[in-house]
Every structure is written in structure tokens, then in C-alpha cells.
Amino acid sequence: MSLRLGDAAPNFKAVTTEGEIDFYEYLGNSWGVLFSHPADYTPVCTTELGKTALLKQEFEKRGVKVLAVSVDPLDKHLGWRNDINETQHCTVDFPIIADESKEVANLYGMIHPNASETFTVRSLFIIGPDKKVKLMITYPASTGRNFYEVLRVIDSLQLTANYSVATPADWKSGEDVIVVPSVSTEDAIKKFPKGVKVVKPYLRYTPQPNKD
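RESULT FIELD:
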């Protein structure tokens, strides 16, 4: 059965560029981003891992740990990591999983036979501290991921996990949010002291509750 939103993220043990890890132990109480790459020494993936490394502080301030995965062996990962650091002007210090057995790829449904029988597609999973899958995105091999969108989604997920709100289209942290339908307007006015703007009975905005 394929992995779906809300499912428990499968745990695994793996060899990585940062040593052997147990996935759950590595995450601890943090949020996690697990993203796959079709193969080492590929141009799009080189830019993606470099961008992730350059955004290290952004992930850290959100309490997020990142891991990459490819079905290539560890020695290849180590050589590729040198190339990434050189060409992208960064330091990749997060784990790159050497998934030669394809255990992780199969657990997370990262191999799509119609795209490739052997290589992982470009999938990304956001996993909450409860070890549940919160988001899944799959890109074709030709399209690089937008990591600012990944950060935006993390901001939304962390906000909506703690407050009775949802985020509208193109929302960015600091902008108004939507009161969820399960909260009545009367209760929303009490719950959100910054104010509630009623556009329609089902469409009500309030300033982001965890921002000054």
C-alpha cells in the first residue's frame, strides 16, 4: 500500500555520509525533510543539495532536520558531496543516505516503474515530530525543487498544528490566515483577540496568531 498523508513515516536504519543512523532517533522531537535523488553526479540534484545546505539556518530555526537519499553507494556520495561543496559554494553536512538495497526507496514509494525501474524519482516528504507524514511532493527528474516553497509549507504546517487556522493561497509567514470552518464566528472572536474579518460566513481572516 502506498504512503499517504497522515500515515506513520516508516522507520529505517541506514548508512549515510554522516555515519549510521536510525531515522526516528535522528529526528528526535524535530520536524524532518526526507528528499530523494535519482542518482549521484546529476546536475539538478547537485543544485538542490547545495541549496539545502545554503538554507541550513532557515531549517534550523524551524527545528527541521534534513536528509537526502539516493540508491548510489557511500563512496560515490562522498565524492559527489565534494563536487556539491565546490560548485555550489556550500558545506553539505546533513546525511545523504546510501540506499543501495533500495530499502528506503521502497518504504517511501520513491521508485516509479513508469519513470525508471532502478532510480528514485524526485520525492520530498515533510514529517512531523509525531513521525506522521505531513506533506508529499513528487517532481519529474527534469525539474528542480523550490526550497523556499518547502520552507513556506513548513511555516504553514507548524502554525496550523498549534492554532485553529489554515493558510490561504500564496500565504507567507506574517500574513493573515483563515479561521477554520469548525470554529464559529462567535468563538473565533473570542479565540483571536487581534480581530476577525468576515468576508463570507465560511471565509474569515485573522492576523497570524503567533506573530506580534
